[in-house]
């Protein structure tokens, strides 16, 4: 694939005419302050030149916009005033599922006190079984918003359906879950929505497929994507999923986007969450997302893996120690 | 979980009142000519009895409606006049993607002549890469419909988005693809649509998760689901996916629903499609879905794995031989 | 890598001198009636030519002797008077473990009657747990030999340790099990022993690694290797392993060696063994190896997956039907 | 399974008689200063009591000696004067393969200077391909011994064959590699040898199978086993293997044995070794084993993943920082 980075303010009308009259396919994108055109196949792209083109570059990887071949400096993403991908390691914490206002607010205050920067919580819940608790939906989003207003923490929560896009206009960061990691229409809509996106890796997706999923969002002119590793499916059953820290770091060598780890879902058990969280930040994760519940034993979902606020506080202190030993902050 | 199968024509008003006033959760379903109520948790379900209940039975597996614990006879599904799950092994064939009318009609006639009963073809295409050919969408569905009218073969084609439900009202059998195998909202909508469904297994889904996905459809009172194994993700790379014939047959031991195999996607290479197709029917598949293209080498997608019409005809003859050796027909 | 196939009866002394004085590495092998030299790296091999060389050919795959790049016709292997890799599909059957003389002889007679050509049975047993029954060892081999003498069926049984090579001089076909599939010293010793080898694929080995394991045997001038697929490790747990029929057939497209399937170990449950056996022969397996026990419920190992003699007989009749539908015999 | 821990110095003759005359199976083991008898099945074990028995306890896990159900305090293992499993995190470093004296000594001195406590190096090399460099064998062990004498670092090196046991009498710690992780005869012989063992997890072994492999060694009265996670086989190919840090820590919750991580083999690429090493110690590994070569680009094996001495020194400083942030030392 070829990427044309256009001169700032240049007249692109002749270039567009050349593209239209060629047999090349192309897509125009506004991203990171640049106007960019992705053109393929190479044989057609190579025939085109125009005064409006500042840089014409061949991109080897199948995710040109997400690749660090053209954009070498790491991308920093702002969720309100929280920056992801910079010196600070950002921690999002909160309940697996929003169950009610009190539960959500209790957790929100506790995780904020312990040092979390973002509030997580599931309103729309993708559940394996149709008879399980399916989340509060739009009402859950409202509860999160309220907890956000009270604590000042921006909210990250999961979208499951293209029909719900309007509800997510009030959300600070939109999460694409593992089961929708290749729901391409949803990726495109979330790209168009323009909000920062936390993109989970599908449990059977290669790193390359994950980065191509992010390309669906970036190619809609939304460059604010954080890649979130949450464990892959393997034969091992002593943990729920296998957190692929190597894959997360391999992604980081290929992209300018920040990376996040979710230690809760792969652990499946509270006692392993600490180890996986510490491992992830030591490896170089820019962000963590952790499940915390005031009373995990009565949680409506994932009761085995949610931390108590007390345990989360202990973990935050250990995270701070490790992160600062490696020259970063929380 | 408990299942109450209700007496035909019984007054259910007192039962409904008992359920509402209990702390049980429940879902009422009309399926296979019966009215059924799924009730949980067991401790609450056990407390309830009522004159309208014919059978009250505990179901051990997490997919009560799909389980053969309560419905022992195999389910036969009608797609227009084609019956799936009976004595005949049904073959669906056609192009990976609908590219144009001529290509589709040519293939449709060829596969019909060779013995196929259903026409397959992708209109909405889930593509790993945003810059790949994404399918013709609604126009593709119209082309399929036309080819169906000309050949008399019912059509099976994939849905990707809850917003497209209306388009699929004209389709004979709706396919849920591997990447949407746990897109639970889509499963529910397709359940409500009431059309026969070909439900592919997600590439990282266990057999139990696959059957729970089918339960999303059945619990919307749509019992017409065919389970389609299409290869799982493993470490092996000499094939594109690993066709899990053992998993397909293991599913059959737990459910009354028919099973289908897709030998094209796991093969990834034409030369292996024959072997996997023959293996699948020998193992006991009720249906096959196979990609055929008039000129695979210029196909807009999956060009490596589509059969020519000639090769498909050879395969059909071998399938007939194997199937008849085992006492079935094509 | 390069392969020099030498002229029959040619004087190789000058070639050997050239090789010794070059900086190439090489290995001389007598196989399939030819003298062959494997030479690497290519840059060095290309410099060498000699009158004794009939064919000098570059081999792309990392298993030159096992590859069908140089030897296109399928290899037929004789285990006494039983030919594997020809028109007939060969079935080996017998108990998971040899438990005593009576059990072994009873099964041997039953499987012979049903149409098996080879007797299988474990004397040395690789058990996951140190406190499980570990097999009868050398005594087990003697019992097999006796059953072989009485029934006229050649014996295939597993070797686990290089120190036991002498015991296996009396065995007709030596099996390398999945857990020793990359025990390279054992592969080499079995190569030197010169007996036909049934080489199981390691449960985490790619097809390419499996073929390289066979190359360890072939490079010791023993070309009598049958490749046996027995299921790979995947996330799916409704079967014990995932029988990779696609991988087995992919191997066959790359090698001249015959392929075998073991449907018993992946099935893990009796009810699935039939389906996997039929699938394997329909796909093109040249051989099957199946566990049969007179009383599976009291077997000392693998009691869940061993067939009764009666069930085996039913299966053999179905295998015969499928195989003959595809133009082969049992 | 039952475990009888015997009274120190008690007369066991009547117990042994009772066991012999019962229909129980049993194994007597001297371990951690105790005499222990493993007895099964439970129904038989429960019938036996005797004055010599101090504790009679049912063990739920299939690895009674390795389980922390009976031995709660962590086991510390001494390799000469180096203690593994205590407060200090132990680092073993050295070349993938011993190539010659100079290379080995150069690396040994460099890794010692940087803070490594043990010297690693391969003399017997399990290579996927028969035409690859197979290691120097016994000569390689002698070179390691010499480097050990000059630097004072104990040596850990891999055994591949039961026939080589005598050579390993001079080695300080014996490694069982991933490909021999279920070579049960080798495990037993290494148990009998009595040397400390570094037991790698097989690339397709579950944590439970890995612990059962360690039980083969412990049941030969050798309690000095360190469990080494080195990456499992998954579908992901951007790394060579998937380092299963979750599985390593899950093992630690079930056993008293120390755990080690090998970040070099799963990384496959130098740039990922640092991240995986830091992640492992942050998660709680008691030991690391890392490949270092004076000139990785010309190494005879694994040239892509070996660190230079300079890079190793940088890594050691980062490891020290992380480990000390978590209250341990190097």
TrEMBL record, chains A, B, C, D:
Keyword terms: Transferase
What InterPro entries does its record include? Aldolase_TIM (IPR013785), Class-I_DAHP_synthase (IPR052899), DAHP1/KDSA (IPR006218), DAHP_syn_2 (IPR006268)
Q: Does the keyword Transferase apply?
A: yes
- Keyword Isomerase listed? The answer is no
NCBIfam families linked? DAHP_synth_Bsub, PRK08673.1, PRK12595.1
Please report the stretch or stretches of sequence annotated as the DAHP synthetase I/KDSA domain. 77-316
Question: In terms of domain of life, where is this protein from?
Answer: Archaea
**MF GO annotations:** aldehyde-lyase activity; transferase activity
Q: What protein is this chain from? A: 2-dehydro-3-deoxyphosphooctonate aldolase
* GO biological process assignments: aromatic amino acid family biosynthetic process
